[in-house]
Design goal:
The complex is a heterodimer of chains A (about 500) and B (about 120).
Chain A (H helix, E strand, L loop, with lengths): L6 H14 L5 H29 L2 E4 L10 E4 L1 H24 L2 H5 L2 H17 L3 H20 L4 H32 L4 H11 L4 H17 L7 H4 L5 H26 L4 H25 L3 H22 L2 H32 L10 H4 L1 H15 L5 H15 L3 H26 L9 H6 L1 H6 L7 H23 L1 H16 L1 H8 L3
Antiparallel strand pairs in A: 1-2
Chain B lengths: L1 H19 L4 H22 L20 H32 L17
Helix pairs in contact in B: 1-2, 2-3
The chains are: A mainly alpha (about 500), B mainly alpha (about 120).
């Protein structure tokens, strides 16, 4: 019994419910949010340290031993992701103070924010596949609320599509669970792994595996990402940071967990699917990032490149690749959160989200410019920043497995990442502020002016936004610099992914 | 018995998919709710159908239904109920804001701006 494991889920849930009763008292909501965020980082750190010392921790709810009851399982992978998510969400919370308007704050923004965290942490921790569905839904329903909150025309155009896609994939999720239960008669992930190993994976179980892959890919934006770029471009940037940093990673986490633990039996079949989808995602994401000239889309396509990279690491299926997956996902949660925070600050400073209307911001906001530059290098994987180690491990895994084409594609996609972000850096921060041809041209596009979700911040809030960005920046640089120390944790996580027996024994030990 | 259920599930999925492929938000929402109904029936069928057996365990009972799928269905029904309600409200709000209930259509006031 490790009651510690329930705290990351319990704390935001209690906060979310509590905040419902203080709708008008924004100061109180912010204070409690900050305290809760710090507490959650502390809890996550203590979970990581305990997993480091004692191995995989489990918590059986109501004392029901698995496979009958629901278990929470914290292996190093889940623990690290919870830690990264709590750090990112804390930074996004600070950024929300700066960028979210009081209308939204008054209408339960912080409540939805915390419910979203409940779903994210719960998905990372749970060891039961139906419980995973429930936490997915908690997370998705909060995201529905966050994506519609504000009710602007653009949001109303995108939100119904976003809901439809996610309802469809949730429906398929339940169908997949039904087939799985019918064929092996259990829902506990460790137990599922045992039984599938007994009957041998093939035929119907491969079909179910692909069904799960479709479901989670829809949520992660792996190959089935057609909905992502426009949906993620409608809410305010603080919400986008949350979505880009956390939501897609939860889908990815589910893919990694499902295909390392539950369906590892037929790697030649599942890996080739995942590898193919990873390749297409990286290529299309790269092309999208290079092709567009408005910042929201460039950033959204950059999410996809990261997703493809992690899937590539998973497809290698060996220890190096798994280490890379863990390392890169931790890096990606932090840096994608940071990317959207910086993007939001940039758009607020430039008063436009079109690259063509920006320029010369280096004079006004040099700090922002250099942070953006460092982030671009980190996302590309320039040593010593945090993206480097993950990419090296993943590509090394790919080369060891002889996946030459995919490795080259992965490296090429890094190059496209660099190009797309440096394009923003060069055109927005250098050069001169383009003069509008005439006043009319600038504002004739009122549709645009009214739909840029980021208003210019007052000076005090500007500082707060910078604090949140610097806070994340410290981690992005710090992880890269202390990669040797971090690798100890990552290696433990990768070992558990590479050898699911460790996970199974920890859950079903009695 | 199972084959009747299989046909019912198939019919629900078919109608649901057909409705989702239409443009009107109202039809789409009805489609999603039919799809979830289909999935719930599927879940029940996949766990094995039994007549006249309660999902209760006590000593000496030979025939009982598996209680787990029923718990899953109940959970899923509650979730899909909540989401459908939310979707209806959102659809109404979207209709008010945009002046159209077509999911992919142009907003009524500024047609050319969205092209």
């Amino acid at each position: 019994m490790n009651n510690l494991l329930v705290l990351p889920v319990l704390l935001p849930m209690v906060i979310a419910v509590f905040l419902m009763f203080f709708r008008k008292n924004i100061a109180l909501q912010r204070t409690i949010g900050v305290i809760g965020g710090i507490a959650n980082i502390g809890i996550a750190i203590s979970i990581v340290l305990r997993v480091k010392n004692e191995g995989i921790l489990t918590l059986q709810f109501g004392g029901w031993a698995p496979p009958y009851g629901i278990v929470f399982v914290a292996d190093m992978f889940a623990a690290l992701l919870v830690l990264a998510a709590s750090i990112t969400s804390f930074a996004v919370l600070l950024y929300s103070f700066a960028s979210i308007d009081s209308e939204r704050e008054n209408h339960y923004y912080y409540t939805f924010f915390h419910f979203l965290l409940v779903g994210v942490y719960g998905s990372f921790m749970t060891g039961d596949i139906f419980n995973l569905f429930v936490f997915f839904e908690v997370m998705l329903i909060s995201s529905y609320a966050l994506i519609t909150l504000g009710g602007s025309k653009k949001q109303m155009r995108e939100a119904p599509k976003y809901l439809l896609i996610n309802i469809l994939s949730s429906t398929l999720f339940v169908a997949a669970v039904a087939y799985l239960y019918a064929s092996v008669g259990t829902l506990n992930m460790a137990h599922l792994s045992l039984r599938i190993a007994e009957v041998g994976q093939g035929g119907i179980l491969n079909v179910i595996a692909v069904l799960f892959l479709i479901v989670f890919s829809l949520k992660a934006g792996l190959f089935l990402f057609f909905w992502l770029p426009s949906s993620y471009a409608s809410p305010p940037f603080a919400v986008r940071a949350l979505f880009g940093g956390l939501l897609t990673k939860v889908g990815l986490y589910a893919i990694v967990r499902t295909f390392t633990l539950i369906f590892p039996g037929d790697p030649s079949f599942t890996s080739s699917w995942i590898a193919g989808m990873a390749a297409v995602t990286m290529v299309l994401g790269g092309i999208g990032a290079v092709a567009y000239r408005d910042i929201p889309r460039i950033l959204n396509y950059n999410i996809l490149i990261g997703v493809g990279f992690v899937a590539f690491g998973l497809a290698t299926g060996i220890k190096d690749g798994m280490d890379g997956v863990v390392f890169y996902m931790v890096h990606d949660i932090l840096s994608k959160g940071l990317m959207f925070i910086l993007g939001g600050m940039l758009i607020a400073a430039a008063r436009s989200d079109q690259l063509d209307r920006m320029g010369g911001l280096m004079k006004v906001r040099p700090g922002l410019g250099w942070m953006f530059f460092i982030l671009a290098l980190a996302l590309t994987g320039i040593p010593p920043l945090s993206g480097f180690v993950g990419k090296v491990l993943i590509v090394r895994g790919g080369l060891e497995e002889g996946m030459l084409t995919l490795s080259l594609l992965a490296l090429a996609s890094s190059l496209l990442t660099l190009y797309s972000l440096i394009k923003i850096f060069r055109e927005a921060f250098w050069g001169t502020q383009p003069e509008p041809d005439d006043e009319n041209e600038m504002y004739s596009d009122t549709k645009h002016a009214s739909e840029i979700s980021e208003k210019a911040y007052p000076e005090r809030k500007n500082r707060l936004a910078s604090v949140s960005a610097v806070f994340l920046m410290i981690f992005v640089i710090g992880i890269g610099l202390s990669a040797n120390g971090v690798y100890g944790f990552v290696s433990q996580a990768g070992a558990a992914l590479d050898n699911p027996q460790l996970y199974i024994e920890a859950v079903l030990k009695e | 018995m199972e084959w009747i259920m299989a046909i019912a599930v198939g019919a629900l999925f078919m109608i649901g998919v057909y409705l989702i492929l239409s443009k009107g938000l109202l039809r789409i929402i009805l489609g999603t709710s039919l799809l979830t109904h289909g999935v719930h029936l599927l879940l029940m069928t996949m766990a094995g159908l039994k007549r006249g057996a309660a999902p209760v365990l006590s000593d000496g009972v030979e025939s009982y239904a598996d209680p787990l799928p029923q718990a899953l269905i109940l959970t899923s029904i509650v979730i899909s109920f909540g989401i459908t309600a939310l979707y209806f409200v959102l659809a109404y709000r979207a209709y008010q804001t945009r002046g159209t209930d077509e999911i992919d259509g142009y907003d009524v006031e500024d047609k050319e701006a969205n092209s």
